[in-house]
């Protein structure tokens, strides 16, 4: 049932945050799948395609940046958005496998804007 | 009778035996009337009658008439060959025979007369012979008396004499040897006639005499059983022999052989007792003469010995005199040395002394000096004539020079000053070097302080081992002496007699031994003296350097960055340096010699501590001592050290040192603060990160909740939640910003005017609405430097926002950029409520805030960015009149 609906994989270890992001993005009309760590994310992506992946950095097993690197190795046309608790990663973005990043905040508008931008690329 | 008596007188008046016989025969002729008268004498030994007169006109067979041939009893006249023979008898003993013409005879009375006369005549003749022998003995005595001391000559003379006087044919003297008799002297014997020259004691007559030490008379050796005929090749008819005995010691035997037939009066041919006794007395004389000779020889020898002894003692006196002379010379040399301080002259005096005529008289003297470091001897000076040719003139002039001075020591001193030894012989030796380690000669001389006398024999045997030296000296004999002191050997001197070849005696060596030590000691004491002089000079130098040192110390003291105060036991200030004046404000002139009370009550505690050094006897240290003085607060490091007299354990005061460490102390406090903050920041970041996730969820769901509620009250509550979440999120962001590890972000060359203008533009309108005006005064030079633009902008934003928040109501915020050679400055000024002075130090501390909703991290972050990231400085000045100014200063060149 392939539709025009864009799909997003949310990788987030903390359940409330995972849930919040899922609901916010579904409100925007995306099909959202969630996993709770990097290993699961890679497993999911091995058999499924999505348009965008949001990656938390601080996770118990794999670091979000490493996961991004591995996703890129899969050579899939997928956008990657990093969600970070820190606010100072901007200058190092070019060296990342990610396409963009956003500082986590209770205000989800910034995140949704970035997702939208990436989806329209 | 009268006629006969006259005849007798006439007979004895004749001095000749022949004449006496003629007178007797004339008497017989007149008595008998016979023309011819023949007078015979009877020889009992041969039983014959021997013709005595006349000795000629007769046939030889008529000389001897054997009585056995006569047919007569010989008691009365009888006819004999147509002549008349008349026997002459004396008391019935036949003594002679008279032969007369036939028919002529003598009567018995006449016969008695004739017999008496004949007997007297014979006896007289015998006596005369004896007399002549005795006279001869006297002659012998005289001769022996004048005989030389030569014992051979004596033996010979005595033997010849014995042979002659005894009418012997031959004579011998046998001297006793080693248990044998040796034929030592002969008379009338040719070499061919000798068969045996050595015989045993006891062999033959000679041996018998030697054995029995008795004289021996052989009437006829032929019939003596002791006669041995194998000694001589001639016939021995009779012998006499005597032992030669001295002091009961047999020394030999004298033998006479075969008596010559010359005595007419003798009625036999052999030696008789008289001959023997004569020989005995000759032997006695010989013995005496031998004794005399021996005595004389002995005397002579003693005399000789005496002369020898005399010579020896003369030599000894001479030797003694020479020794005394040498000792005196040595004394004078030492005396001259004592008046000299220059080592160069010392060595000259030594060399001159050893070679001069009044000194040791050596031909040449070579000085070798010891080089301790290289362990060699270095030839320095050599004194003496250069060549044989130069000798006479050199010595003549030296002698003349010497004689000008009465005193040898004086001469040595003057000569040493006058003479230059650098040329001459010295040029042959100068600089020559001889190792004294393992060297045959110098090892002994230097390392064992021995004198080495190299004799011609030693040179012949071992010369190869010191060929270098021999090559230089060109002699076969020399002596090398060390110059020995108590502490060391200073060198050596080589002496020789190249030109005179005078041997070097053991006595000279002994004397050189004394010389070597005395001169060595003198050199040592001179060297010690020189060292003493040096030390004295050094001491003088040290004294003046002590003055210098004192100034130097004073200088140091004055320039030290430490305050120094020296106080004595009576609490009087002895020293007060410049830094003390600077630190405490007291003039030096007032402090020196003042009591420590002058320092005032604030010092009381410090001085009490200082006093403790007297008991502690060691330095007391106080670190970071908080000292309030003259309205100021100091942190001081203090040290109180006991002041001790040099080398004496007496404390005469103390030295107080004050080091102002206030600045350092403050820096340390700040550093500690920062360390504390770093830890705090890290912790905060951790917490903040953990807070952010739940905060996002809370805020996120709150917003979702707000969207779906229509309840105003819930919506109002959700807004409160959202505001609080926003505040918490800001705090978390700032905390994370402050504590981030990344120090140097992306530095870009930026022009500060533009950076500041961006901020001003952002806030200009917003602030204007609230009545606050922003004025920006740009630096016309438009300074640019490398900065992290986002971070730097954040600093300006923070300062501008702070300024805005400080306002109550309307006001002005003035921003100004300016620069100098090294720095670019940004001033942010406001005229709002000033920061109280006691808070001014705290405003850069994190979490310090005066605002209700401030995080307290804004200025802390500013300082972190300016000072830690850009190596700049952020300062604040605030008071009621001039307002509050924050100044950011960043270097043009990082």
Give your account of this protein's structure.
The complex is a heterodimer of chains A (121) and B (894). With 121 residues, chain A is of the alpha/beta class. Chain A has helices spanning 15-27, 38-47, 64-73, 109-120; strands spanning 7-11, 31-35, 52-56, 79-84, 100-103. Chain A starts with 6 loop residues before the first strand and ends with a helix. The model of chain A has no long low-confidence stretch (mean pLDDT 85). Chain B is of the alpha+beta class. Chain B has 5 domains: 2-129, Beta-Lactamase; 147-300, 2-Layer Sandwich (Beta-Lactamase), CATH 3.30.450; 380-532, Beta-Lactamase (2-Layer Sandwich), CATH 3.30.450; 560-660, PAS domain (Beta-Lactamase); 742-891, Heat Shock Protein 90 (2-Layer Sandwich), CATH 3.30.565.10. A 6-stranded antiparallel sheet of chain B has the order 3-2-1-6-5-4. The termini of chain B are far apart.
CATH fold-type name of chain A: Rossmann fold
Structural class of chain A: alpha/beta
| CATH topology-level fold name of the largest domain in chain B | Beta-Lactamase
CATH superfamily of the largest domain in chain B: GAF domain
Stretches of chain B where pLDDT is under 50 for at least 5 consecutive residues are: none
**How many strand elements of chain B?**
30
Using the 3D structure, state the CATH architecture of chain A: 3-Layer(aba) Sandwich
C-alpha Rg of chain B (nearest Å)? 77 Å
Straight-line N-to-C gap of chain A: 24 Å
What's this entry about, in short?
The complex is a heterodimer of chains A (121) and B (894). Chain A has helices at residues 15-27, 38-47, 64-73, 109-120; strands spanning 7-11, 31-35, 52-56, 79-84, 100-103.
Secondary structure elements and pairings:
The complex is a heterodimer of chains A (121) and B (894).
Chain A: E1 7-11, H1 15-27, E2 31-35, H2 38-47, E3 52-56, H3 64-73, E4 79-84, E5 100-103, H4 109-120
Parallel strand pairs in A: 1-2, 1-3, 3-4, 4-5
Helix pairs in contact in A: 2-3
Chain B: H1 2-13, H2 17-32, E1 37-43, E2 48-53, E3 64-66, E4 78-80, E5 83-90, E6 93-100, H3 108-146, H4 151-165, E7 168-176, E8 180-187, E9 198-200, H5 204-212, E10 216-218, E11 239-246, E12 249-259, H6 273-338, H7 343-355, E13 364-371, E14 376-383, H8 391-403, H9 408-418, H10 426-429, E15 433-435, H11 442-447, E16 452-454, H12 456-462, H13 467-473, E17 478-484, E18 489-496, H14 506-559, E19 563-568, E20 573-576, H15 578-584, H16 588-591, H17 604-611, H18 613-616, E21 620-629, E22 632-644, E23 651-660, H19 662-708, H20 712-739, E24 748-751, H21 752-769, E25 772-777, E26 784-787, H22 789-806, E27 811-819, E28 823-830, H23 858-869, E29 873-879, E30 883-891
Parallel strand pairs in B: 25-27
Antiparallel strand pairs in B: 1-2, 1-6, 2-3, 4-5, 5-6, 7-8, 7-12, 8-9, 10-11, 11-12, 13-14, 13-18, 14-15, 16-17, 17-18, 19-20, 19-23, 21-22, 22-23, 24-26, 27-28, 28-30, 29-30
Helix pairs in contact in B: 1-2, 2-3, 3-4, 3-6, 4-6, 6-7, 6-9, 6-14, 7-9, 19-20, 21-22, 22-23
């Amino acid at each position: 049932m392939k539709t025009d609906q864009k799909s997003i994989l949310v990788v987030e270890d903390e359940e409330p945050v995972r849930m919040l992001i899922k609901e916010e993005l579904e409100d925007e009309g995306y099909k959202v799948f969630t996993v709770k760590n990097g290993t699961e994310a890679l497993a999911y992506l091995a058999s499924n395609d999505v348009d965008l992946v949001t990656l938390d950095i601080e996770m118990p097993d794999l670091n979000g940046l490493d996961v991004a690197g591995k996703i890129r190795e899969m050579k899939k046309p997928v956008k990657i958005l990093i969600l970070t608790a820190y606010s100072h990663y901007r200058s190092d973005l070019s060296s990342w496998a990610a396409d963009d990043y956003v500082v986590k905040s209770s205000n989800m508008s910034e995140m949704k804007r970035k997702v939208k931008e990436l989806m329209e690329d | 009778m009268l006629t006969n008596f006259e005849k007798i007188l006439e007979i004895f008046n004749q001095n000749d035996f022949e004449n006496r016989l003629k007178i007797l025969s004339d008497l017989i002729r007149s008595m008998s009337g016979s023309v011819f008268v023949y007078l015979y004498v009877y020889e009992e030994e041969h039983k014959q009658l021997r013709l005595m007169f006349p000795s000629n006109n007769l046939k030889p067979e008529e000389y001897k008439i054997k009585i056995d041939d006569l047919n007569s009893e010989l008691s009365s006249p009888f006819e004999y060959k147509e002549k008349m023979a008349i026997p002459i008898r004396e008391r019935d003993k036949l003594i002679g025979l008279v032969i007369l013409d036939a028919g002529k005879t003598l009567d018995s009375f006449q016969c008695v007369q004739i017999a008496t006369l004949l007997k007297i005549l014979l006896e007289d003749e015998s006596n005369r012979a004896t007399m002549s022998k005795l006279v001869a003995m006297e002659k012998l005595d005289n001769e022996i008396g004048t005989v030389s001391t030569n014992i051979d000559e004596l033996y010979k003379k005595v033997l010849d004499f014995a042979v002659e006087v005894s009418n012997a044919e031959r004579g011998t003297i046998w001297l006793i040897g080693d248990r044998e008799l040796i034929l030592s002297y002969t008379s009338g014997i040719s070499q061919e006639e000798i068969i045996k020259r050595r015989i045993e004691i006891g062999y033959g007559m000679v041996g018998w005499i030697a054995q029995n030490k008795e004289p021996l008379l052989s009437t006829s050796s032929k019939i003596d059983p002791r006669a041995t005929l194998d000694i001589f090749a001639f016939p021995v008819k009779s012998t006499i022999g005597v032992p030669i005995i001295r002091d009961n010691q047999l020394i030999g035997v004298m033998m006479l052989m075969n008596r010559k037939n010359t005595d007419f009066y003798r009625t036999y041919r052999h030696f008789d007792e008289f001959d023997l006794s004569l020989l005995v007395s000759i032997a006695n004389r010989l013995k005496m003469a031998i004794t005399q000779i021996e005595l004389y020889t002995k005397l002579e020898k003693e005399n000789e010995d005496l002369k020898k002894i005399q010579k020896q003692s003369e030599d000894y006196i001479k030797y003694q005199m020479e020794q005394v002379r040498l000792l005196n010379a040595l004394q004078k040399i030492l005396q001259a040395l004592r008046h000299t301080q220059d080592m160069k002259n010392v060595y000259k005096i030594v060399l001159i002394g050893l070679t001069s005529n009044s000194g040791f008289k050596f031909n040449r003297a070579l000085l070798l000096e010891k080089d301790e470091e290289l362990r060699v001897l270095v030839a320095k000076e050599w004194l003496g004539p250069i060549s044989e040719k130069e000798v006479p003139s050199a010595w003549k002039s030296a002698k003349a020079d010497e004689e000008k001075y009465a005193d040898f020591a004086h001469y040595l001193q003057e000569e040493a000053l006058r003479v230059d030894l650098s040329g001459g012989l010295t040029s042959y030796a100068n600089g020559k070097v001889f190792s004294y380690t393992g060297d045959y000669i110098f090892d002994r001389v230097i390392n064992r302080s021995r004198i080495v006398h190299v004799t011609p024999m030693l040179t012949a045997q071992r010369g190869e081992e010191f060929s270098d030296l021999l090559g230089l000296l060109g002699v076969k004999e020399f002596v090398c002496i060390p110059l020995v002191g108590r502490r060391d050997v200073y060198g050596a001197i080589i002496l020789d007699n190249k030109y005179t070849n005078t041997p070097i005696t053991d006595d000279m060596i002994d004397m050189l031994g004394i010389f070597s030590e005395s001169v060595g000691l003198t050199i040592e004491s001179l060297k010690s003296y020189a060292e003493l002089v040096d030390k004295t000079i050094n001491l003088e130098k040290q004294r003046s350097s002590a003055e210098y040192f004192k100034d130097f110390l004073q200088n140091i003291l004055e320039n030290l960055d430490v305050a120094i105060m020296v106080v004595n036991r009576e609490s009087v200030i002895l020293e007060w340096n410049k830094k003390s004046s600077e630190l405490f404000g007291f003039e030096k002139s007032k402090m020196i010699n003042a009591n420590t009370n002058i320092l005032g009550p604030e010092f009381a505690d410090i001085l009490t501590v200082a006093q403790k050094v007297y008991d502690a006897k060691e330095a007391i240290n106080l670190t970071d001592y908080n000292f309030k003085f003259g309205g100021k607060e100091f942190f001081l490091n203090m040290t109180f050290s006991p002041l001790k007299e040099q080398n004496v354990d007496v404390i005469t005061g103390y030295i107080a040192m004050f080091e102002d460490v206030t600045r350092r102390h403050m820096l340390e406090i700040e550093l500690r603060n920062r360390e504390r903050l770093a830890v705090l920041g890290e912790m905060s970041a951790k917490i903040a990160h953990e807070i952010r996730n739940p905060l996002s969820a809370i805020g996120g769901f709150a917003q979702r909740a707000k969207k779906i509620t229509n309840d105003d009250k819930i919506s109002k509550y959700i807004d409160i939640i959202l505001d609080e979440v926003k505040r918490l999120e800001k705090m978390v962001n700032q905390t994370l910003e402050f504590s981030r590890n990344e120090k140097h972000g992306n530095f870009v060359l930026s022009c500060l005017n533009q950076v500041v203008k961006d901020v001003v533009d952002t806030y200009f309108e917003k602030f204007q609405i609230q009545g606050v005006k922003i004025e920006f005064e740009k630096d016309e030079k438009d300074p640019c430097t490398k900065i992290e633009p986002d971070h730097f902008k954040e600093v300006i934003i923070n300062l501008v926002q702070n300024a805005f928040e400080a306002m109550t109501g309307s006001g002005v915020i003035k921003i100004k950029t300016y620069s100098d050679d090294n720095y670019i400055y940004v001033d942010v000024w406001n005229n709002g409520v000033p920061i109280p002075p006691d808070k001014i130090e705290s405003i850069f501390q994190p979490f310090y805030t005066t605002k209700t909703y401030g995080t307290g991290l804004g200025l802390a972050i500013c300082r972190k960015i300016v000072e830690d990231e850009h190596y700049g400085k952020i300062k604040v000045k605030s008071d009621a009149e001039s307002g509050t100014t924050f100044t950011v200063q960043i270097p043009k060149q990082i």
